[in-house]
Write a structure and sequence with these properties.
The protein is mainly alpha-helical and 219 residues long. The protein has eight helices and four strands. The chain has helices spanning 5-15, 21-28, 30-40, 68-84, 89-109, 131-155, 161-179, 186-208, and strands at residues 45-48, 57-61, 114-115, 122-123. The strands form two sheets. A two-stranded antiparallel ribbon has the order 1-2. Strand 1 and strand 2 (57-61) form a beta hairpin. The longest helix has 25 residues, at 131-155. The chain is globular and about 50 Å long.
Length: 219
């Protein structure tokens, strides 16, 4: 699961618009922001195996970001941070659930590489092994959640075109990631992934600043 994670952010924004879009976009990929940072530092481990169907990532060690206990801790951390910055309880809870959605969606597509508990069993339904249905699932989730997000923007009097641009960028990202770049170095992979996550969070911040039609200075 890659671009499909952003469906959780868009759905969350449509459901609870009081949290900024960038916080939801960052939240949906928070586990991977941690993962890419730790991979770049050599703490968590990944191998690139082109013989694997679908994703060529062999994610053989990521206990601090993608184990079930770690996902719960990251989600709780997001809740605490959201409340510290005075988001309403409901918005903070939706933000935390957006973080945890990452583990649930990964459970669908990952091969068994998600630890249920430290040193215990690893789980994953391996939908990655069926590339076309998996891609259809990802883009379908983004399309449905994106439509809900655009509808919510319209109720606030915002233009639809910034949302369309964001959805188009997600589509391009999925296509480019599907083509593969032949990257072999895990450190470079971690750095590249981290940059992508941060750039899309920044884009979400810019989109959310688009004013309401007919008003000036309204975010």
């Amino acid at each position: 699961m890659f671009v499909g994670h952003y469906a959780a952010a868009l759905a969350a924004k449509a459901y609870e618009p009081r949290a900024p879009l960038w916080t939801y976009v960052g939240a949906c990929q928070l586990l991977d922001i941690g993962w890419s940072s730790l991979v770049a530092l050599g703490v968590e481990k990944v191998r690139i195996d082109p013989s694997l169907p679908g994703s060529d990532l062999d994610l053989y060690s990521m206990p601090y970001t993608h184990s079930l206990p770690a996902a719960l801790v990251w989600s709780a951390g997001a809740l605490i941070a959201a409340r510290a910055f005075r988001l309403p309880w409901r918005a903070a809870a939706v933000l935390a659930l957006t973080v945890f959605s990452h583990w649930i969606l990964d459970l669908l597509v990952h091969r068994p590489d998600l630890l249920v508990w430290p040193g215990g069993a690893k789980v994953g339904l391996a939908f990655w092994n069926f590339p076309l249905p998996e891609l259809t699932l990802e883009m379908g989730l983004v399309a449905v959640a994106g439509a809900a997000w655009v509808a919510q923007r319209k109720t606030e009097g915002r233009h639809a075109w910034p949302a369309a641009i964001f959805l188009a960028l997600l589509t391009v990202l999925q296509i480019v990631s599907g083509l593969g770049g032949g990257m072999k170095d895990p450190t470079a992979l971690g750095v590249q992934a981290l940059v992508i996550y941060l750039v899309f969070t920044a884009i979400a911040w810019a989109i959310d600043r688009q004013p309401v039609r007919g008003l000036r200075g309204v975010a």
